[in-house]
Design goal:
The complex is a heterodimer of chains A (564) and B (430). Chain A is mostly helical. Helices cover 51% and strands 6% of the residues of chain A. Chain A contains 26 helices and eight strands. Chain B contains eleven helices and 16 strands. Chain B is globular. Classes of the chains: A mainly alpha (564), B alpha/beta (430). Chains A and B meet through helix 10, strand 3, strand 7, helix 20 and helix 24 of A and helix 1, helix 6 and helix 7 of B.
Chain lengths: 564, 430
């Protein structure tokens, strides 16, 4: 399904009829980005760059050399669109979205209350079914951990120990695009938009909530809530003025609360640190309000975060500093993206597909000659922005390139299809079962390889409990890739691993081709073929050794490290 | 209502434009935020030949002030040990530290410490960040600040090295918003940092060849697509190679046997010797942990053993630093998460006690021979010049020349480097 632009476009620039005739979201995006930029836009990415980029963005993997060859050699002019459509239907798409939203929502907190598998499995199921995202958000903000069926969804609050301040800060940052941490103590000094009343309005949804030491399945912790407790606050600058607030989102008025009858405050009364359940829950008022039409910040922030994931930078940047002193680079476009997302019923798949089909997404990251630094300012999106691979992408890309993934896949498929011929026939006899077989194989592959990903997460991720958007290069990462065990061993495996495949090729030019396709998803240039040939002439006496060195150089190159 | 989060309102001095300019300069890799009053202090310091160092000896678990810096012999709380004279007339410390007593003229004591925090984890955060732990809003540890603001980018050694028993440690968040580049590198057990030995899969010519190839690839890529992020990435490989080349700094077996004998032939002795080697080689911040002082029972026999180890190694360390002229550029701090109760419990132990305890300092920026603060006769309360973790933090930063009032911008929040509610202990500073 394509997202149609049904919103009345406010700006004349966007209202102009599309050059392609339709009013697809992708056309509106390209008109907004390209307006006034004639002659300054980067050329389209090459097929190899595009294949690598979109595969990483939508599945978290890099293509195999066979996939790369097939795509590069496919003469069809429609191959990019077909690729996008097929990628979002793969189980790896749900996996990639699981990682994206797990990292966005839990920010790599240790899974102390809900096992990681349960929470991630829950997320994956939502993305595989392409459930409307607003529904998923309502679910994770509503679940209190008491019902085994929805306990995984409660991880968002449980892993934050239900702490009202942490919940306030993170809901504002993650769902409303506003880091209002400062406003706990006073109106923001630099940004007129961030008021202390915003902080405490949101805080009032959570101030009665706490982590009870019972109430969950098998006596585990769950969220409890008191029936009373009002929110008052003082600015550190005006210590004599005390303000009182009810629950509200940003500048909206306080939510109307039903009156509480004395003596009937609770379904379950508080006992010690046990779980209290009030008849009127303040926390339960937030999810519907947050995701409703009345809170445009929600759809705007979600759209901006998804844009940033695909394009390498938010229209509002940084993504959690949305305020009038830090305006969006393309304000009307951001409104349009948010509204389109909402109008589509928060159809994530359709939205990402549409972004992937824009010209903006498919531009080369290589600037055309003659442009000034001003023309190339990242907020203009005139060329593609290079994105460092996320820790998970880096791990899977390294394992993909060295042949670990394909070898494990073969083993998994062997176990699934070859051990028991009856099972194989059963799976192959029915398309639904065939699909199930593909999903089972993907899950099993992850079960076996996820431990290897942890090493990459350890070295490449930001600290737990903090925004994970920005990444830093560290000497520990370089040491890990230079001398660390997993990579050096993977580079040395023979057989159908990369090293084995390269050693089996006699012609240096073929070596170069297989090497470049496996690591960088493109064929080498003549210069690069010569370089490999020379390298092998110098170092090629011990061929496995030489191949290992070459492959290492490509895997640690800038071109590999960045989604470019 | 007390503001739990340490954002320094009074110091919001930066203009919006300057801040947004800083934001624009920062890439997607690297920290989101510009630094206002730190204009390359490390590079400037290095050029002046004034590189400062910090060496923190962490007595994990909470060492007893009564068995170390503030003995109360012959009182009901004093325990069995006596006090002894030191090289500073009139200043007496526990008899468990005879060698350190002879170094007292190089040191200063803060005897009026009250940190209001009796929890191990929170006390540790408090002492390392100079402010109470705020859930969901972590602040950088002292070592990460030193790595960020006192370390030259060209220094091959990591800015923040933590030597622990066993070399373990999980400091993945000590740098907080400064970014993982400024987290601790953990070493111990005589082992150099992880992954600093050349992988056995590569011989030396192969190692050279693979790096040459990597550089060629990167140079070609960079002709058209060079950004701050790609530069930051490629430079980490150069740093890695430099660190690998300096690997021998971590090898304490290079020291003569008599030196080791002076430090003590135990882990803590070796670790103090390593700390001296690292400072000598130019490391900015080194922390040595000595474990474990959490003596809820048998406080006295444990301290007899532990403080004995500490005394020998620490005295040798101070002596070496002074002999080599390093002490005047190196601030040495001995601290814990808290002290121990004056009251002796029925298991002959002392429990957690943050109300009245001591911290020792020496070296760079510190007035030697000084004693600041006083506890009462039984050591149950501070009676003169009470200071908290914030004051100590301000003092440490000031001593090494970092302005504790300087602010930096992180994701739109302006934060003072040290808790604005506190100030340095002036009488301790030169």
């Amino acid at each position: 399904m394509r997202i149609l632009v049904v919103v009345v476009l406010a700006a004349g620039m966007l209202a102009a009829p599309s050059a392609h005739g339709g009013n697809l979201l992708r056309d509106a995006i390209d008109q907004a980005i390209e307006a006034g930029q004639a002659g300054k836009l980067g050329p389209p990415a090459t097929d190899g760059e595009f294949l690598r980029r979109v595969t990483l963005d939508l599945t978290g993997l890099i293509p195999t050399s066979a996939e790369a060859r097939a795509f590069l050699d496919d003469p069809s002019p429609y191959k990019r669109e077909r690729l996008i459509d097929s990628l979002v239907d793969r189980p790896e798409y749900a996996r990639r979205m699981q990682v994206v939203f797990d990292v966005m929502w839990l920010e790599r907190r240790p899974n102390a209350q809900v096992p990681a598998d349960a929470w991630r499995g829950y997320l994956r199921k939502q993305f595989a079914a392409n459930r409307p995202l607003d529904q998923v958000v309502r679910e994770i903000l509503s679940a209190d951990g008491s019902d085994p069926k929805t306990r995984p969804a409660a991880a968002f609050a449980l892993e934050r120990a239900g702490d009202p301040h942490v919940m306030t800060r993170d809901v504002a940052r993650i769902f409303l695009g506003r880091d209002i941490t400062c406003s706990q103590c006073h109106d923001h000094i630099l940004y007129d938009d961030y008021k202390q009343s915003h902080y405490y309005g949101l805080f009032a949804f959570f101030n009665r909530t706490y982590l009870a030491d019972n109430g969950g399945p098998d006596g585990k912790a769950a969220l409890g809530e008191h029936a009373e407790g009002d929110v008052t606050y003082k600015s550190v600058f005006k210590k004599k003025v005390t303000s009182t607030t009810g629950p509200h989102v940003i500048d909206a008025t306080d939510v109307k609360e039903a009156p509480i009858t004395k003596g009937e405050e609770y379904w379950a009364y508080p006992v010690g640190k046990g779980r209290a359940v009030p008849r009127q829950s303040r926390r339960a008022l937030l999810p519907a309000l947050l995701t409703s039409e009345q809170t445009p910040e929600f759809r705007r922030t979600l759209a901006n975060r998804l844009w940033a994931m695909m394009m390498g930078r938010g229209l509002v940047h940084p993504v959690d500093l949305d305020h009038s002193d830090n305006p969006a680079s393309h304000p009307e476009l951001l409104v349009l993206l948010g509204d389109s997302l909402a109008t589509s019923g928060y159809d994530l798949k359709a939205f990402l597909r549409e972004l992937a089909k824009t010209r903006a997404y498919s531009r080369s990251s290589e600037p055309p000659p003659g442009l000034s630094p001003g023309d190339l300012a990242p907020e203009k999106f005139t060329v593609a922005i290079m994105k460092p691979l996320t820790p998970e992408q880096m791990g899977w890309a390294v394992m993909g390139a060295t042949g670990v993934v394909s070898n494990y896949k073969l083993a998994v498929e062997h176990d699934l299809y070859e051990v028991n011929p009856k099972l194989r026939d059963l799976i192959k006899s029915d398309p639904r079962r065939t699909q199930l077989g593909i999903e089972l194989a993907e899950e099993e592959l992850h079960r076996r390889l996820d431990p290897s990903i942890n090493g990459f997460v350890q070295h490449f991720a930001r600290p737990p409990g903090q925004a994970q958007d920005a990444q830093t290069s560290t000497v520990n990462q370089a040491l890990f890739l230079t001398n660390g065990d997993p990579l050096q061993t993977w580079l040395s495996n023979g057989g159908t691993y990369l090293n084995g495949r390269l050693v089996a090729l006699a012609d240096p030019s073929s070596v170069a081709e297989e090497l470049y396709l496996s690591t960088l998803t493109r064929r080498p240039t003549p210069e690069e073929r010569d370089e490999v040939t020379r390298y092998l002439a110098d170092r090629g006496k011990d061929r496995p050794r030489a191949m290992r060195e070459l492959a290492w150089a490509l895997l640690t190159s800038t071109e590999f490290r960045f989604n470019h | 209502m007390r503001c739990e989060y340490a954002c320094n309102s009074a110091e919001h001095t930066l203009s919006r434009r300057r801040f947004l300019g800083g934001m624009a300069a920062a890439g997607t890799v690297g920290m989101a935020g510009g630094f206002s009053r730190f204009l390359q202090p490390a590079a400037a310091a290095a050029m002046n030949g004034k590189q400062k160092h910090l060496l923190v000896v962490w007595l994990a678990g909470g060492a007893s002030q009564l068995e170390t810096w503030d003995p109360k012999p012959k009182t009901i709380t004093g325990g069995p040990f006596r006090s002894i004279e030191t090289s500073v007339p009139g200043v007496r410390i526990s008899e468990l530290m005879p060698k350190t007593a002879r170094q007292m003229h190089r040191m200063a004591l803060v005897r009026g410490v009250n940190t209001h925090e009796d929890d191990h984890g929170k006390g540790q955060v408090l002492m390392h960040t100079g402010r109470p732990e705020a859930p969901g809003n972590p602040q950088p540890h002292l070592g990460s600040l030193a790595a960020r603001f006192m370390t030259d980018e060209s220094n091959p050694l990591p800015g923040y090295i933590h030597i622990t028993p066993g070399g373990g440690g999980s400091g993945t968040s000590e740098a907080a918003f400064l970014g993982p580049k400024y987290n601790a590198m953990f070493v111990g057990n005589g082992q150099p940092p992880a992954n600093t030995a050349r992988s056995g899969w590569f011989d030396e010519p192969g190692d050279v060849a693979r790096h040459t190839m990597r550089r060629q690839l990167n140079d070609r890529f960079a002709t058209r697509r060079r950004t701050a992020d790609t530069e930051a990435y490629t430079s980490t490989y150069d740093q890695a190679q430099q660190l690998m080349a300096r690997r021998d700094v971590f090898d304490v077996t290079k020291e003569p046997a008599e030196v080791l004998a002076r430090y003590g032939t135990h882990d803590f002795g070796r670790h103090c010797m390593l700390a001296r080697r690292l400072i000598e080689a130019g490391s900015t911040y080194v922390q040595v942990s000595h474990s474990n002082y959490d003596t809820h029972n048998e406080n006295f026999s444990f301290h007899l053993e532990q403080v004995g180890e500490f005394d020998q190694s620490f005295a040798a360390l101070l002596d070496d630093l002074a002999q080599r002229g390093l002490l005047e550029h190196t601030l040495v701090v001995v601290m814990s998460e808290f002290g121990r109760t004056p009251t002796i419990n029925q298991l002959y132990g002392r429990d957690h006690w943050s109300k009245a305890w001591s911290v020792a300092m020496a070296g760079c920026g510190i007035t030697a021979g000084n004693v600041v603060g006083k506890t009462n006769e039984k050591g149950t309360e501070v009676v003169d010049r009470e200071v908290g973790a914030g004051h100590l933090f301000h003092t440490m930063l000031s001593a090494v020349g970092l302005d504790p009032k300087a602010g930096y911008e992180v994701d739109g929040r302006s934060i003072q480097i040290a808790d604005p509610a506190a100030a340095p202990i002036k009488e301790l500073l030169i």
